[in-house]
Design brief:
The chain is of the alpha/beta class. The protein contains 21 helices and 13 strands. Helix 2 (about 95-110) runs antiparallel to helix 16 and helix 9 packs parallel to helix 11.
Amino acid sequence: MKKKLLAAACLLLAFAAVSCTSETPEKPADSSESPSSASEPETDPRYDIPEPELPELDLTGQKYTFYTQVNLENEDPDELFHPRDFLWVEGLIGEVVNDAVFNRNLKVEQKFGCKVTMTADETRPDVLIMAGDSTIDMVCGGSVLFGDTIYTGAYMNFKDLPYCNLESEYWNPSCVRDTVYKGKLYMMANDVCLSPLSTTGFLYFNKRLVAEHDLESPYQMVYDNTWTIDNFLSMVKMVHGDTNGDGIYDTEDLYGALVKAEFRMGCFLQFYFGSGKTFTVEDPDEGRVIAVDGDFAQNLIDKLYPVLEDRTVCLNNYKVRDMTGDTKDKAYKTMFLEGHCLFIQEEIAAMELFRNMEDDYGIVPNPKYDSNQSDYYHRVFPHAVMFAAPVTIQDLEKTGAVTEYMAWLSHYTVLPAYYEITVKQKRTRDEDAVNMLDIIRRSMVFEFGDVYDSYMPNYMWNSYTDRSFSRKFGASLKILQKRLKKYTKMLDSLD
């Protein structure tokens, strides 16, 4: 089975490679980062994982059902793929990700005899589960939604679900590392749905503006280990101006950066996590404790605020919305699309819009704090879609075995179709961008304080907007500790 899947993945990737442009610059000779070969996933350890050992279950006549809550008001029309597109599709349409999802589900059905289905409804999943709905095998939803409703007792500890190897690459072990509480995991990410990858934030840059302002390539700075916050801010300050000469800075002018100003996803938090910092750490006695370095946070605020809040140099998505009257995300991304800024803070999903950009764009990781920092870090979007297992599951053997097999299959088929073909080959424009994406994917981190109800991201964002860690997060530390303790006691009570 493994050899057949590897062969199928190779054919899929090789076929797509034929249709893609070969006019990409060579990677700099002194680069330490090597791109993964899109046409030979079997040589890449990320794809070379043995088939899990599972029982021979005959589930003929049964269903394996995903449930996802529909919220049409919050859906982004420019999103590359909606999270539910990774769960279930109606049939083959000749689009590589859609067809990979269909064929993956078909292989599951052929192996176990069950029918893979999806229910999408406006009702909150925990309400259905606590009312006794036993038809749902796996809930797919935003991590904050799960964190806000775990107190209901609707979801089981993933570690109690048989056959699921949560340490395997296709289960995203960084999620285990970063969100486990006393051995318990009430939500998990895996390769069945690629929302955590597609919504992880990083930076796009405009190549034309780099050349016109005689700036060093951000690519080369990554290769030389000089891509730091100080150098990023220096570049931002060099590219701005009232280009139409009307004396008013608006969306028709030029800016060094466009960033997000949102409690959980604000630019400061992205750079804080990008510096290798967290809100919490695992503790052998308490389970989780707050571990915020206040002096570091204040130093970072002092670096970023004067530049990112200078409205002649940078704009945020809310300011752009106020100037245009359009939605904050669409107008903000359109400014980059039309060449009005050097950098923009965005996600992989934005490539669907940027593919129409006249200027060439590049991709770089969030900068390191300084060159002494060993690795890059990229915080997964706090509302990224993850999985939760209902306590009303009637057949744990069925749900565990099918979920594990589907996650493994997705690693061989859906992940390459999305990441190697759709993103790398069809949306990026040069080989360096492919290298950068690999760095970003390898450095994804989760945070317990993001996905569970702790309010820490909000207080940290308030520290940035107030320019004072001590007045906001520091002054509220006892409140936050008390809130975290209350929450972890609630998790303990779920036993």
